[in-house]
Design a protein that fits this description.
Helices cover 43% and strands 14% of the residues. The chain is of the alpha/beta class. It has two domains: 216 residues, Type I PLP-dependent aspartate aminotransferase-like (Major domain) (Aspartate Aminotransferase, domain 2); 116 residues, Aspartate Aminotransferase, domain 1 (Alpha-Beta Complex). The strands form three sheets. An eight-stranded mixed beta sheet has the order 1-9-8-5-4-2-3-12, sandwiched between helices. A three-stranded antiparallel beta sheet has the order 7-6-10, with no helix packed on it. A two-stranded antiparallel ribbon has the order 11-13. The longest helix is centred in the middle third of the chain and has 31 residues. The two termini are 35 Å apart. Bound molecules: pyridoxal-5'-phosphate (PLP). The site of pyridoxal-5'-phosphate has 14 residues, from α3 and α4.
């Protein structure tokens, strides 16, 4: 099976985990502090707070801003945690369409902002590429809303030389097993806004108000620390694989577009084709793990209010992702291309 998710660990992770076991300091120790400091330095932000998941990071970021009874704008295409965190934090979500890059449509966002006066906008850097942060931050300055970046899929991605997660007021990361920086489970909030950082801390430390325990263990932080060192090289390999797909795969597939000024880190390599379901069946038959991220739109699954979503509605029927993790060999990539090409040759074409 050519797998779509394949986290790999080396001697370094094993040694760190062993050291933690032998030290007896299995939570709230040096690895958590080290990871927070290193990740903050890597992103170019003042502070990073590690948390137990990306969903919790989104939830606490929203609580820190304060969204009870307030509108929060999210894009139609994302993992459901993006909208669930809004409901859990007491906000009222409004869903907008995506652009050709599968990220929030900044033109439609302007209409939505004028109509709904949101407290927060959550651009999702879907599949590993940043949303149109220049337009979104410009709107934020004009209309006075907070920008919370959902950076769960974009560790190391850049917009005009700055790292995703340092572009808005606050950002949320996930370190789930499939992510470009995996810990197994885990999340983080990053921010350079000192007032928001103080509010975030109130949700992490007990005593301020009823709260959950949202900490990670030293094991997760230690693994994250080692994985962070490999992130740039892994992202480079992901970009190499993406360009191999782009160069060798034709046959009516729509490849991802790279936004000018953005550095895409290909968390997922997402293609579009009208015969998507048939192609996925043929991939499976040849032992290749292809998947649909995501078969739903956020407004549908939770019955949220939305603007018209013509692009997302079309993309949702056509998108599918193929393996792009950094441990794929060139031979495996060529095999995936061969199977995709033969799948469309076999696929009946729509007559009109
Ligand atoms: C875009 C997006 N947002 C939020 C999350 C939630 O992260 P977690 O699974 O760590 O709670 C994910 C993770 O899958 C995600 O892909």
């Amino acid at each position: 099976m050519v797998r779509i998710i394949e986290p790999r660990f080396s001697e370094e992770e094993k040694e760190i985990v062993l050291e933690i076991l032998e030290s007896g300091q299995i939570t709230r120790g040096k690895w958590t502090s080290l990871f927070q400091e290193e990740f903050a330095r890597y992103l170019g932000v003042e502070q990073v707070f590690t948390l137990c998941s990306g969903t919790v990071a989104l939830f606490i970021a929203l609580k820190a801003i304060g969204v009870e009874g307030k509108r929060v704008i999210v894009p139609a295409m994302s993992f459901m945690a993006t909208i669930d965190a809004v409901y859990l934090a007491g906000g009222i979500p409004v869903v907008v369409d995506v652009d050709q890059y599968y990220t929030m449509d900044a033109n439609q966002l302007e209409d939505a902002v004028k109509k709904y006066r949101p407290k927060v906008v959550i651009p999702v850097h879907l599949y590993g590429q940043t949303a149109d942060m220049e337009a979104i931050m410009w709107l934020s300055e004009r209309h006075g809303f907070y920008v919370l970046e959902d950076t769960a899929q974009a560790h190391g991605a850049e917009w005009k030389g700055k790292k995703a997660g340092s572009l808005g007021h606050i950002s949320a990361f996930s370190f789930y097993a499939s992510k470009n920086l995996p810990m197994g489970e885990g999340g983080a909030i990053a921010t350079s806004d000192r007032r928001l950082a103080q509010e975030v801390k109130k949700w992490i430390d007990f005593g301020n108000h009823p709260a959950f325990n949202v900490r990670i263990t030293e094991f997760q932080a230690g693994i994250g620390y080692a994985q962070l060192k490999k992130l740039e090289a892994n992202n480079l390999r992901r970009r190499e694989i993406a360009s191999r797909y782009m160069q060798s795969l034709n046959g009516g597939f729509v490849h991802p577009y790279e936004r000018e000024g953005a550095c895409h880190v290909y968390h997922l390599y997402t293609l579009r084709h009208p015969q998507r379901d048939l192609i996925l069946e043929r991939l499976k038959a040849r032992g290749i793990d292809g998947r649909v991220y995501y078969p739903y739109l956020l407004n549908e699954i939770r019955g949220a209010e939305s603007l018209p979503l013509p692009k997302a509605e079309r993309f949702r029927r056509e998108v599918f992702s193929v393996p792009v993790h950094p441990y794929l060999t060139d031979k495996e990539v060529d095999f995936i291309v061969e199977v995709l090409l033969s799948a469309v040759e076999l696929a009946p074409h729509p007559l009109c």
